[in-house]
Specification:
Length: 93
């Protein structure tokens, strides 16, 4: 790995940066959940809303947020594991 790639990777896997990113993604997911709930309630009361295509886009954004949260948690867990522990789960006794 080149020194530039090493600097980039260490910056991208900075735990403080990952925690801020995770906090922001969780906030966006909560806002999106509130928006979807309001959309469903408004639809139940018969208000004319944007079509189903916009709801598909909103759900797709939620899926992207969930994947981002999962990947950020994975990076944080990899950073917090001791180096002596094997990563494949096969621990020697």
């Amino acid at each position: 790995m080149t020194p530039e790639e090493h600097r980039w990777r260490s910056s991208a896997e900075n735990p403080e940066k990952l925690q801020r990113s995770l906090r922001g993604m969780r906030l966006l997911l909560g806002l999106e959940g509130a928006f979807v709930a309001a959309w469903v309630i408004a639809a139940c009361f018969g208000h004319k809303l944007a079509g189903a295509g916009s709801m598909i886009v909103i759900i797709g954004c939620g899926i992207c947020l969930l994947l981002g949260i999962r990947n950020t948690k994975r990076l944080l867990a990899r950073h917090n594991t001791p180096e002596e522990t094997p990563r494949n789960g096969n621990e020697t006794k």
